[in-house]
Structure prediction request, 791 residues.
Amino acid sequence: MSQLSQRPVDPIVGESHHHESAFGHVTGKALYTDDLVGRLTGVLHAFPVQSTQAHAKLGAIDVDPAYAVPGVVRVITAADIPGVNDQGVKHDEPMLPVDEIMFFGQPIAWVLGEDLEAAKAGAAAVVVATEELPSLVTVPEAIAANSFHGVQPVIDKGQVDDAFADAAHVFEGEFEFAGQEHFYLETQASLAHVDENDQIFIQCSTQHPTETQDIVSHVLGVPAHEVTVQCLRMGGGFGGKEMQPHGYAALAALGAKLTGRPVRLRLNRTCDITMTGKRHGFHSTWKIGFTEEGKILALDATLTADGGWSLDLSEPVLTRAMCHIDNAYWVPNIRVHGRIAKCNKTSQTAFRGFGGPQGMLVMEDILGRVAPKLGLSARELRRRNFYSAGQDTPYYQPVRHPERMGAAWDQVLTDAEMAAREAEIAEFNAGSPDVKRALALTPVKFGISFNLTAFNQGGALVLVYKDGSVLITHGGTEMGQGLHMKMLQVAATTLGVPLSTVRLAPTRTDKVPNTSATAASSGSDLNGGAVKDACEQILGRLRQVAAGLLGAPAHEVSVNRGIVSALSSKKTVTWEELINTAYFQRIQLSASGFYRTEGLHWDLSTMTGEPFKYFAYGVAASEVEVSRFDGSYSLRRVDIVHDVGDSLSPLIDLGQIEGGFVQGAGWLTLEDLRWDDSDRPSRGRLATQAASTYKIPSFSEAPEVFNVSLLDKAHEEGAVYGSKAVGEPPLMLAFSVREALREAVAAFGPGGAGVELASPATPEQVFWAIESVRAASPETADHREGERVPS
Prediction:
């Protein structure tokens, strides 16, 4: 067992603790970026001048009318940027446009006012000259126009064409599905001020403080050591604050530089939705071949991601989608082409799962559609194609522990009482012509690590004070997911002190430099490894001190719950006594920790290698009830078994599984992004700009019965204290909801009918799917004679 994954006796990790800011969250005591404005004086407020065209040539910007508005202090345009006018990772994303507008809602200029109302009025007064240009709004439009940007990678393994020639069954299809708005509770927010030494300090709601620092640095044309970024906490991120905050932080910093006053930039909900990127929608075409026994023999697919107007993170999102198209199934012969559509829309970005859900959805949709044509239940078809020992992925990474998938599957079958419930559902459906129920199981196999190997590193700073109290700072950011609590537990376990001994400081770039984003579900792996490393450095020094106090060899010394002891000594001392002695012996009581994930390698040019440290597995069973009258449905029960290794903090992990599942169900069944693709002047406008038009899950959409279990005997060797990531994989468990809806729709038609289901499968789409299968049934057609059928 590796030192990284080995747990001491009686560890703090593995205990269930509430979120470290839980009481602050529910009482309102927890502060977020915008709550800090009142601590500064003379704060200016920023508001954007937004484009009202999807694509246009930008002419003159007349800012004089804005200065006539009382309270307006400064208008910022591209001409005011002293450094590099770019806020993206690919240098294709001007922070403010110079000569071309690329999407409806793009900020053209920003107005700084004494208050927000003055800034709004000033923004409304700015006059922008434009000349409309042709625009591409949908992915099919971009495909037809051959409008793509970035790389076009290919996965090619085995003998795909020969395998299709040998296949007993071959099917082809097309599937386009929507993206998703992050809809975090706290919108994008930054607060910047400049001190007397020209040091720029930015409070920012960001998942990637180091990259925020980098982009502010090059926009302002100053070195990184002049910029400090702090993230106290975020009110949700979900990937939407990995790349998106940087330009807003840079604008606030620029405003502070230009005016000498603090600048607050917080987007209202409409600005946030219309200006920030979404989960990538995808268009796919596919061809799949099976053996006579229903084993997948070959897959040939093309995935086209909706990138929007600039690249952002579209390239790694696309490659992760391609790497996850197999999901839990072995595909011996596979060819996948990937490309990124360039459209006149928001620049789509990271979202929980980072392309993995999109790739896996294609496969799950295929299996759900073709199972009836193979004469198999979808559940049986899925189970027959699970990975087994010795098999590898389309990119040649061996699949370790595939037996865990089967174990989770079997546990769900038992715990969810599948056999008895399926009999009950069959009986219910037989006597219910207008309401049908269905139950579906789907698996998840999700790779954990950043696609880019260099990002798989983390840092931490651990300080032990003279009284024995401990302060830790790490490079990860807290967005409600409980990372900070896990890091407190890791530190307490490694040092051997009670949890109450350890406190956590906000994430800051001047404490832990060059960090990676808190993303890719890697926050606990990377930062936990770094915290553990720092604590072990300190503990190694303290063992020498303890050896003298206890009269025992240093290697025998252990610390447990604040008591220091050794095997060959009857003496004990307290942690506080040990620290006091170490201080007077001039022993260093602080350490900078570092961790990098070993064993990773990836060749983007060939799409081969081992990009993931391990795979997280999970299985979900979902039961739905659907009405034929309007397509409405309810989620009656969900049973989940998920693999988190040896959990660092079970209560936190259970919350992540529940939240991820519900968010995934929202993407697949409710959340319907609508852009205006008409030829009207509003072409390119996002129509779903608020909670009134964009439906996210609420309590009423949560399952009536929600059973979540963690997979037993799932220790992960080589990961911090044997744990596994939990942030993203549970989202894809929600495929079971969509597949249950498909089976419920099929129950309205003749036996063995295949069902094509849109995504998101909104009640409207479910209704039309029901109408389609009922039209195929002779009995239903006779029954409906005389009914008015909607056109």
